[in-house]
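Severity: low
Component: inverse-folding endpoint
Summary: output formatting inconsistent between runs
Steps to reproduce: submit the following structure tokens with default settings.
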């Protein structure tokens, strides 16, 4: 009986050691890292003129590859996508979050309720562009609004871009 008990205990220890080794190898290969929701960029198909209404009421939406623009001839909203894939043991959403955290600096402000994570940057360049970078899972979306005439943005354009980003974030999350 003792011998049978020892065989069972030694067998259980060997099985546990093999399982632990297998799990450790799977972790080191990144098998548990979250890939993220997106395997490709969604393109301009998720955008229609109604999404841009808070900034550009009569928007004409155009696509240039994975980048999209909506303009009425005087104000333009640009949307670009970057897909972040997992790398090693770090998942795509975590890498995308690290990127936004690294980009955020003194001239940025955190936007709550926009995508999974978002920041706004205001610049002093010609056309007074404003940039919002947001993350939805492992997808980074960069939105900007600019006055094509070179002057200040029209009233409400800055907050309108936040509404555009929030609407797009909701569509992408759904």
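Observed output (run 2 of 3):
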């Amino acid at each position: 009986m003792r011998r049978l008990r020892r065989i069972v205990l030694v067998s259980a220890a060997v099985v546990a050691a093999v399982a632990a080794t297998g799990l450790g190898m799977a972790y080191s290969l990144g098998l548990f890292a979250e890939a993220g929701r997106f395997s490709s960029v969604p393109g301009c198909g998720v955008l229609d003129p109604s999404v841009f209404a808070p900034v550009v009421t009569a928007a004409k939406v155009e696509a240039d590859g994975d980048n999209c623009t909506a303009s009425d001839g005087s104000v333009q909203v640009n949307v670009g996508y970057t897909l972040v894939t997992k790398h090693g043991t770090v998942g795509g959403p975590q890498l995308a979050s690290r990127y936004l955290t690294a980009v955020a600096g003194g001239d940025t402000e955190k936007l709550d309720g926009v995508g999974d994570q978002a920041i706004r940057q205001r610049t002093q360049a010609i056309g007074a562009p404003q940039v919002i970078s947001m993350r939805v899972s492992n997808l980074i979306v960069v939105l900007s609004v600019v006055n094509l005439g070179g002057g200040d943005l029209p009233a409400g354009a800055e907050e309108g871009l936040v509404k555009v980003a929030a609407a797009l974030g909701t569509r992408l999350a759904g």
